[in-house]
Write a structure and sequence with these properties.
It is a single chain. It is built from 11 helices and 16 strands. It is of the alpha/beta class. The strands form 5 sheets. It has a 5-stranded parallel sheet. A 4-stranded mixed sheet has the order 4-3-1-5, with no helix packed on it. A 3-stranded parallel sheet has the order 7-8-9. Helix 10 links the parallel strand 14 and strand 15. It has 2 domains: 76 residues, Urease, subunit C, domain 1 (Roll), CATH 2.30.40.10; 259 residues, TIM Barrel (Alpha-Beta Barrel), CATH 3.20.20.140.
Length: 361
């Protein structure tokens, strides 16, 4: 791992930038987005279309009603469109972060547990704008109360990327989404919800009926997809990295409810046992999965599932853990990251890219 850092995992970006070498491209435009009332004609640009083709010069791009209508010659007539001179900059498709926590990315864990809810959402709105101005135009939110911010962005109240929200992360008791303190245990049938549940960060469910209810609640709120915790994690307070969470029947309850709504379930999970159980239940997206083996990779390919990977590497960009146990879990995942990409390529598995930045202002 000494030769491979998270920054080197961004080599795809470096390769793209290498295509621009010698182009003398200015920095990204950082002004406020302009809302045009009519068609736009973007001129004096270099076009990177993401298809693998070389960067194109000598073209203009016409946009009508927020969509690209045509690629035209550089000297094309405006025909009533507002002309924007791009100053030789590169025009490219918006980036998509497939594993993003809209509400939890730009605050510390202490702030998340102690700050006023309103403050947390104001910070999230600011970070949404920063995310958009970094070139990320769509995010798949994989857990947290992002519905209100999604609405504000859709209505033009604040600037930010398109958000595809999952709502609360659904977790079993003691699972990766159980953030309660020890003094909150045991929980009776009439016990109040924890603060994290009230805020919509997580939802604890045990048994098929509870999983079904919590899934339907997130769908009611407007979830684009459903997130379940099917295994342990590195930063967990209670659940070991190699633990398997939710029974196949519980997972299937969520899958069937999501399918009835025309959508799917994604799961946080690392181990072969947890991944295979999730696939048998009909889960369509494996989040993380860095400890997968060859048998599991073949199963993912056979089921047509998506492998949503992140550059988890024990390097200078990684989270710092004070205890040896979590550092060891981090090491296992870091080694698994390299192997996971090799397996995904060898078995031609659909892969998605995400950052999973969490509690990191």
């Amino acid at each position: 791992m000494a030769d491979l850092t998270r920054r080197q995992m961004l080599g795809g970006t470096a390769a793209v930038m290498a295509m621009f070498a010698g182009l003398n491209v200015p920095t990204v435009v950082s002004a406020q987005p302009r809302h045009a009332s009519g068609p736009l004609l973007l001129t004096n640009l270099q076009l990177f279309d993401g298809s693998g083709s070389a960067v194109q010069s000598g073209v203009s791009v016409r946009i009508d009603e927020g969509r690209i209508q045509a690629l035209l010659p550089a000297d094309a007539a405006a025909d009533g469109a507002q002309v924007i001179d791009c100053g030789g900059r590169v025009l490219m498709p918006g980036l998509i972060d497939a594993h993003w926590h809209t509400t939890l990315a730009a605050i510390t864990q202490t702030t998340a547990m102690t700050a006023d809810v309103g403050y947390i959402h104001l910070v999230a709105a600011q970070e949404a704008k920063r995310t958009l101005m970094r070139g990320v135009t769509s995010v798949r939110d994989v857990g947290g109360p992002s519905f209100a911010l999604q609405r504000a962005i859709n209505e033009g109240i604040v600037d930010g990327p398109r958000i595809f929200p999952a709502g609360a992360m659904i977790s079993q008791t003691s699972g990766h989404g159980d953030f309660r303190m020890r003094h909150e245990i045991p929980r009776g049938s009439n016990s109040p919800l924890s603060e994290q549940e009230r805020q919509g960060v997580a939802a604890i469910a045990d048994g098929e009926d509870e999983v079904l209810r919590r899934t339907r609640e997130q769908l009611m709120l407007g979830a684009s997809q459903i997130k379940l915790m099917a295994g342990g994690g590195v930063a967990s307070l209670y659940d070991p990295l190699d633990s398997t969470q939710f029974t196949e029947r519980e997972l299937r309850a969520a899958v069937e409810a999501a399918d009835d709504w025309g959508t799917y379930v994604m799961v946080h999970v690392y181990t072969p046992k947890g991944i295979q159980r999730s696939l048998r239940a009909g889960v369509k997206s494996i989040e993380h999965g860095q400890l997968a083996d060859e048998e599991t990779a073949r199963m993912m390919a056979g089921e047509g599932a998506w492998w949503s990977l992140q550059p988890f590497l024990q390097d200078e960009d990684a989270n710092v853990y004070p205890d040896a146990a979590r550092r060891e879990s981090q090491r296992q995942v870091a080694e698994g990251t390299v192997r996971a990409y090799e397996l995904a390529q060898r078995f031609d598995i659909h892969t998605a890219w995400g950052t999973d930045i969490l509690f990191s202002p």
